[in-house]
Amino acid sequence: MKANESVLVIGGGIAGMQASLDLANRGSKVYLVEKTPSIGGRMAQLDKTFPTMDCSICILAPKMIECLRHPNITLLTYSELQSVKGSAGNFRVEVLKKPRFIDENKCTGCGECAQYCPTEVPNEFDMNLGIRKAIYIPFPQAVPLKYTIDEENCIKCRLCQKICKAGAVDFDQKPETVNLKVGAIIVATGFELFDAGRIREYGYGKYRDVLTSLEFERLLSASGPIGGHLLRLSDGCVPRRIAFIQCVGSRSLKGGVQFCSSSCCVYATKEAILVREHHPECEVYIFYNELKVFGKGFQDFVKRAQNEWGVKYIRALPGEVVEDPKTHSLIIWYEDTKENMTKNTEIDLVVLCPALVPRIANKELAGILGLELDKYGFFKPRDVLYTPVDTNVPGIFICGYCQGPKDIPESVAQASGAAARAAEVIALSSSGGVR
Amino acid sequence: MVAEPKIVAFLCNWCAYAGADLAGVSRIGYPPNIRVIRVMCSGRVDPAFIIRAFETGADGVLVGGCHPGTCHYVSGNLEAEKRMENTKKLLKLIGLGPERLRLEWISASEGGKFAQVVTEFTEELRKMGPNPLKAKAKMEAPINTKQAISEAVKKTNVQYCLECGKCSGSCPISKVNDAFSPRRVVERSLLGFEERVLSGTDLWTCLTCFLCTERCPSDVRFPEFVRACRPMASVELKEELCAHRGIPMALSRMMLNPKIKQDRMGWLPEGAEISKRGDMLYFVGCIPYFDVIFEDFNLELLKIPQSVVKILNNVGIKPALLSNEKCCGHDMLWTGDLENFEKLAKKNVADFKRARATRIVTACPECYRTLKKDYAEVLGNFDFEVLHISELLSELVDKGELKFDAGFSKKVVYHDPCRLGRHMGVYEPPRKVITSIPGVGLLEMGRNRENAICCGVSSFMSCNKYSKEVRMDRLREAKATGADLLVTTCPKCQIHWRCLTTEKPPIDPEIVTMEMRDFSVLVAEAMR
Amino acid sequence: MTFEPRIVGFLCNWCSYAGADLAGVSRIQYPTNIRIIRLMCSGRVDPVIVLDTLINGADGVLVMGCHFGDCHYTVGNFYAERKFRMLKKLIALTDLEGGRLRLEWVSASEGSRFADIVREFTNQIKTLGPSPLAGENPKRDLLQNMQAAQMAAASFRLRVLVGREKGLVDEGNVYGEKLSQEEFDRVMDDAVTAEYLRSKIYLMVRKEPLSVKELSKRLGLDSQKALRHIVAMKRHGMVAVGRVEGTTPLYIALEMGR
Amino acid sequence: MESKEEAPRIGVFICHCGINIGGVVNVPEVVEYSKTLLGVVYAEDNLYTCSSEGISKIKEGIAKHNLNRVIVASCTPRTHEPLFRAACEEAGVNKYLFEMANIRDQCSWAHMHEPEKATEKAKDLVRMAVAKARLLKPLEEPEIDVAPSALIVGGGVSSMTAALCLANQGFKVHIVEREPELGGMLRHLHKLYPSMEDASQGLSQIVNSVNSNKSIDVLTSTVVKEVKGFIGNFEVTVERMNGETTNFGVGTIIVATGAANFEPVGMYGYGEYDNVITQLQLEQLLKNGRLEKPEKVVMIQCVGAREEKGRTYCSRICCMTALKNAMHIKELSPDTDVYILFRDLQTYGTHHEDWHRRAQDKGIKFIKYVLEKPPQVAQREDGKITINVYHALLGEEVKISSDLLVLSTPLIPQEGAKELSQLLKVPVGPDGFFFEAHVKLRPIDFATDGIYVCGTAHSPKDVAESVSQAFGVASRAAIPMAVKRLRVEAITATVDESVCSGCGTCVKLCPYGAIQKDEKGVAKVTSVVCKGCGTCAASCPERAITMRHFTDEQVRAQALAALGRVYA
């Protein structure tokens, strides 16, 4: 296949995967670069998805495996983009493959090694709530199912090497630079979480039972740190009252970001329903200022949460979360803005919904690719109206959350869009000349 | 021709007033300078009456009551005697001299004594010469309040309010008083109901503690908005809501008079090393006055300036002091008296220059904020470095130049005064200094630093059952830490808390008798 | 131990089965009694199989397809509906409670509707009680009726009629004669009754040779009618005279094609 | 591979799906049970059978126990069958020898509070699957050609964007628009947020490039009359206004029919007072510069949207439309007081929040109202509209008298959406908008292969969002057209000639005309055309038709298994 008929996709989340699959299925060669050891991205961390309450990993896993098995897709996991030269139709790309210290061809993913590895490390995939070993796969459904030794934490006891029957462990592995020629590039780097600790009055990092929503997703998840049995981390008790707080760092002109993350109101609703599903006796409150229910089926979803699941919505951004000096239970102070009464209520577990922000690393990436970022750090579309997935550089396209806040279906649709634009470039360049 | 002295007399109905009548009945003559105000008992005479009388130009004030033991109300006159002593001290401090105030026991049968007292007093006042103070005209409110408010709105980001309720969910007052909600004031201003904003009590209820400002995601700076509105607000209401009958502010206004020479250095201990001029000036603030006004609280407030000077001397600084230092004007600024605030600011700056100071250290958070921030804003150019004593000392701690002699093992909890903390962002210096004192363990309240709550009252406005709740709440929180000692850098915090002891019915002493200490005093105690 | 009905559901893949999935996905709870068989289209539901299911002791059968107009195969559900009408007619003759059989339209987005129907149908079956055909000793004569019904449902004549109904009513037959729905239904009714009776006769004489007289007695049918059926059946090679007892011929069943 | 002869060797893989199944159904028990079933030689459980670990377990199982039938008891075949089938094929088992038992969506999730009964049901479902599996036969999928051309229904910005993108990829496109000209909703809009450029400007550019593109054939004043066939080979009949009809074939179809604007007749005095208008009408006034400098303008949001019953959905774009027009009015006449009465301001994302803040700067007045207490509207003698709105925060009614009341009304499904959905055999949702194949991961596909949806036909959205989706469908539709050949259903009907009496019933009833009588006068099935519904098999008077993969025997076996009887 001609070089200019292949495409580089940066980011192995749902957007990156969708773009890759679309292109691969239409016969283009795709190089999918992911900086962590497994593709799957944020969606893999979620327990369920709104509004259908589909089990997230269940609908995602088939796609991940499709990416793995697809003859037209080359997965470059645990790898990062280093440099890009050339122009649309003819990019020359350098990708750095970080050493896994595991021979991917030999590793069967049996996991023996991890059982014996003596070093325990907080698992990033579980938002550091759970632990993994220094030799690890981030999560059970990881793709590829190949183990990775993280250099930082490995104590080089080489126990794994002795254990591994496949003889896959290779401590001499070196970083390796992969050179690629591609016709187009698609960027889908997703998002990261605003540091909820910066909104000090909510006591994140200070109180054990104040969590972020993504940490909460991991708690709910069957493959998560506590096997999906929703409990308080402080004392292992079943929480009797749970509160979700919206707009932690979002929609703010001070101390946060100005934009709205566009999905928190609904995913909080989802998580609230899941709580009721786990513990029907547990009371759930969602503190919000404005309910963003603009998406297809969102309003009905929220109604269902209210009427069928008994989730209580309180229109207020709480002033503070304080610990009762005596009982040590958490107390939320808020003004119920429907009654204009300032009240407080005792809560066992507080879930903060932090702003979903563009990745810091976008700056660096933008530098390598020569892309423009907007004032928030999202990649900037060439024309916000008519070419939402194009960038200032012809042949480089953007999709998913890194282009601006959106939910999964929007990311998926847009990923296909980016694929289509990439396909145009390929078509045009193989028929000579790009616009 | 010499101006005739004006005497205001407060006479009790049963003795002194009757005595005055008798003087007339008996056709005993006395100078016409006196203007008599009848009160039921000399105990009713509030120091504020007297201060106000002097502020508005009275040359002398006479208080007449029954002889001890004959008070129609048993002990009203003794109460009066105590107050008059206290008031005399204030008059001494402000430089008018205690002599202008006179307390006399005159029974219903002593018409002669009354005439004699008036005659003597008139003579003495003639000798003393006239009271330099003159009645001042009331300040005019701006004409176009609508426009003024919309400007304030823009200046303080009020238009960005999203009605999320975070302010009222944070405000210590809203928590105890549903009638008050910052965002309601905001919404009224935005929808063009200015009149109701200006006429209501809300403007005066705000503690200006900046807790809402700290947290508001839309960066609405409500307290500053309130401050901008107060000059347009109803003055009558303001007077009505002002605690301690406005004495502190009256005194501040008096200081503005050029002829006033305060006698405020009495606190200065033997052998303290100070100077009239110098690079570093110690701005004392109104503590000498508070010491008198709040005498009953036994807070030993004078220890504060004494400690500061001691500390400064210990670290080899010989501060310059102003013998006629004016109030920084904080309360005026925050209660809408911009005109007088500006005057005070100008005078102080002039004095700073005269003293050739470049650096000004203060132990009072209000003075600190006012000098460092507001002077600069009002006067435009203000080229002095302003330091809080804790900043100065923590620098020394860093340099290892702060030496303590006497350590003592105490669990200490530190309260962040709004002005020093959220207003100026000084959180760590006091803590650093405290923890550097040998043996002292620093505890934190659940709500500390940015999240600390106000002591309960600000600028002596709206001291009421709600502010009482707030104060008790803070004291309870401090107690709950199990600390032996509650330390603050703001004398007013101590005053407002200790004021709770005067509450009727009495409050559980468990709460209010928590031992308190000013930051500087604590530090000084650890030095020889 | 309470009666837990056994309910078999025949659902089309595109609407009803998806609707059932959606019910689960939305965590809408409904009774566990239903056992769902996935077919590509409700049109695939052969009356013979439904009857077979009932004969084998199902307490209830629920057939579900797309709403009219939504059918993934355009008209599959129309045919399903026609087959079902024929089925109902047959069941009515067998004196099995008609309430044990139901046809419903459920779309892919009607998760809660699906649950409601299942809940409601299950309760209905519970009130009807266990099927007389369930368990070790099913009600014999009912069983025979049902077998007759099944045989009728498999009969060429009924199946042609059902398969051609649309054609006959909308387009007309080869001679271009159109039937009105009423006319067709009349024809259909006669055919159903006839086929049912003949199947019943067939099953009887398969056990033992019987005379027309005896048959008419057992069927509670006047002997003229019975004779007419026998004659027709002889023509179709279903029965023949086994032996003659005195002057009365006794008929026996012949093995048929399949 | 021929498995008829060899006895069935069935392997059963039962998924915990984390706790989705395992949390309710006693999976180990079901595993043990399935081992007892006739034909089952192996059974195991997996945490996630769909994980690559699970998949390799299946392959191992096949190899180790030389299985010739595989059953996975987990979620719904509608989403996961392809994955597991592929696994089987890779392990050398024909993928049609795979069967699934849906013990999650139709069991554990639906019976969360009855674990015992759910476990019993799960066992039955596995037993049914086994019963069918024993009778499964291997099948092959025939290949078909895909015509490299697409039909796009609708001629708005979504349609044209998709058309251009497809054309640039080298495909032929037919746009069918029922209006006399292209442009759709954009023709009625003035400015577009967030860039605030004129709608007409961008529109004319696109229309020009569409008209000048040789690969795009535009049919205006035309409607789709009939669509026959299947992916790769659709037969389209369109009718012009003058009644003349044309036919052409396409490989794929894209639905981009857009949406209509709701007319709030009888609400807030609309239709009664002439100074009560919709945002769309306001756009017209602004476009034609016919808006005087009013003293006050009031806008009410959610008029006929987010209702308790009926139109319960949020129309997504109305808040920004209101902000946009409000800002525009402020530009035209800064002294005009503009009020926006809203419930929850749907200013999501980056640009929208920006505009919200700018509107606050401009002094536009926002008043939150609650559904329980909607604003009251009346007209004064002098023609002004008085709006009384309960202000929850102030705890009192705020009274505004305004020169103009603008109602923000939702987008509603295009008239004819239902007809089109029946024409194409694709569903519409409860809200009347087209219903995608999967809300999360197939947002712009239909369940039917080769048909796709984009823009406001799918749900309300703004221009940028519609365009994103338009590019999206341009990719989805391009996939089969680019690969040119497709493997199609192996699940088709077949006629047993020896039994067929040639009555022709099936020929008549097949909706695809897939069955014809051959020279011998017996029925014959064209399997690429057959979609496998099985209606013929269920109707054949001679029962001569076998529906592959859903044979009478297989279905009957399932039914009997469900009743706990063994199939004889």
Task: Report on the architecture of this protein.
- The complex is a heterotetramer of chains A (435), B (528), C (258) and D (568).
- Chain A is built from ten helices and 24 strands.
- By secondary structure, chain A is of the alpha/beta class.
- Chain A folds into two domains: 3-98 and 175-190 and 359-430, FAD/NAD(P)-binding domain (3-Layer(bba) Sandwich), CATH 3.50.50.60; 194-355, FAD/NAD(P)-binding domain, CATH 3.50.50.60.
- In chain A, strand 19 (320-323) and strand 20 form a beta hairpin.
- In chain A, helix 1 packs across helix 3 (56-69), helix 1 packs parallel to helix 10 and helix 7 (264-278) runs parallel beside helix 8 (298-307).
- The longest helix of chain A has 23 residues, at 408-430.
- The relative contact order of chain A is 0.16.
- In chain B, strand 6 (359-362), helix 19 and strand 7 form a beta-alpha-beta unit.
- Chain C is of the alpha/beta class.
- Chain C has two domains: 7-128, Rossmann fold; 155-253, Winged helix-like DNA-binding domain superfamily/Winged helix DNA-binding domain (Arc Repressor Mutant, subunit A, Orthogonal Bundle).
- Chain C has helices at 16-25, 47-55, 76-94, 111-128, 140-153, 156-171, 181-207, 212-219, 223-235, and strands at 7-12, 34-39, 60-65, 101-105, 239-245, 248-253.
- In chain C, the strands form two sheets. Chain C has a four-stranded parallel beta sheet with strand order 2-1-3-4, with helices on both faces.
- In chain C, strand 3, helix 3 and strand 4 form a beta-alpha-beta unit.
- Helix content of chain D is 30%, strand content 24%.
- Chain D has 15 helices and 30 strands.
- Chain D is globular, with a radius of gyration of 30 Å.
- Chains in contact: A-B, A-C, A-D, B-D, C-D.
- Chains A and D meet through helix 1, strand 4, helix 3, helix 8 and helix 10 of A and helix 2, helix 3, helix 6, helix 10 and helix 12 of D.
Give the overall shape of chain D, derived from the CA principal axes.
globular
Strand content range of chain A:
25-35%
Mean pLDDT reading of chain A:
93
Number of domains of chain D: 4
* Largest β sheet strand count, sense and barrel closure of chain D: 5 strands, parallel
| CATH topology tier name of the largest domain in chain A | FAD/NAD(P)-binding domain
Strand line-up of the largest beta sheet of chain D: 10-7-6-14-25
Structural class of chain D: alpha/beta
Number of helices of chain A: 10
Instruction: Report the uncertain regions of chain D.
Output: none
Overall number of domains of chain A: 2
Under CATH at level 1, the class of the largest domain in chain A stands as Alpha Beta
What fraction strand of chain D?
Answer: 15-25%
CATH superfamily of the largest domain in chain A: FAD/NAD(P)-binding domain
